[in-house]
Amino acid sequence: MAALQFAPDAEAIGFPTFAQAFTATVSGDCTHACLPVENSLAGSINHTYDLLTDSVLHVVSEQIVRVRHSLLARPGTTLEQVQRVYSHTQALEQCRGFLARHGYEAVVDFDTAGAAKVLSENGGEGKAAIASTAAATHYGLDVLAEGIEDLEFNFTRFFVLAQDEARPSPGPRKSSLIIATKHRPGDLVECLRQFPENGVNMTKLESRPRRDKPWSYLFYIDIDGDVAEPNVAAAMTGIMRKAAFVKFLGSYPAAPEKM
Per-residue b/e over 146-174, b at no fewer than 16 CB within 10 Å? Predict the structure, then answer.
């Protein structure tokens, strides 16, 4: 859904892992990769951020998708017949109230659409899946209930990645980068201070452990603005002078806020 929101006429291809989607885009088998980076309820998708650290791909767009969960079953199954519900752990958690009210057993599966696919192929009596209505249409399943998530404020943010940087475009822009600092008092503060001193708004700050140095951390940062803007460029220059490591992920059009 996020990929086609970015490019409605494109062919969307699924991969078993995030790493394979990265590899397919780097090799040229795909023009873009579209991967989740955070959910408004569950927080950041750390695997994507870890892959971004080593990747040569650039962030060229962000897409925000409203998450609406539905209960799916094979044709002829009723709500009363359902006993076990399969889905991704986050989907099950986000529908915990619905599952409890109906007395269903939650069973963790690899992902939402994957649970729907398996159900369509091997679903037995008493089984259902939590996924989107689009998955129901694709796999020939019935929708037993829609909008079963416990909270309405449920959105997932995606990065669209490509080999080439995003072209300049009108409208609001955002930029993303990764930094590391030395283990000295105030080093992180000195880096982050570059944003307010240059009138740049920081919208996200996330820390992740470095995989090559125990007890050291990388900081993932999102800001408003494009690196081509003088104040953003000045902030970036200041950070590069003070940080131990800087990786610029890209400037890209900001997604419209969906509320």
Answer: eebbeeeebbbbbbbbbeebbeeeeeebb
Same domain, 159 and 136: no
Catalytic residue among 25, 48, 112, 156: 156
Structural domain boundaries, residue 213: 168-259
pLDDT in tens, 205-246: 999 998 888 888 999 999 999 999 999 999 999 999 999 999
Regarding whether 159 and 32 lie in a shared domain, the answer is: yes
Among this protein's residues, is 219 annotated catalytic? Answer: no
Pick the catalytic residue from 158, 159, 195, 219.
158
Q: What does the DSSP assignment read for 87-122?
A: E-HHHHHHTHHHHHHHTPEEEE-S-HHHHHHHHHHH
Low-confidence ranges of the chain (pLDDT < 70): 258-259
Sign of CA dihedral 6, 9, 15, 19: negative
* pLDDT score for 134: 92
**Is 158 designated active site?**
yes
Is residue 42 helix, strand or coil? coil
Number of domains in the chain: 3
- Please indicate, yes or no, whether residues 120 and 241 belong to a single structural domain of this protein: no
pTM reported for the whole predicted model: 0.87
Residues whose CB is less than 8 angstroms from the CB of residue 148 and which lie 6 or more positions away in sequence, other chains included: 69, 70, 71, 95, 98, 130
Angle at 158 between CA 153 and CA 163, to 5 degrees: 170
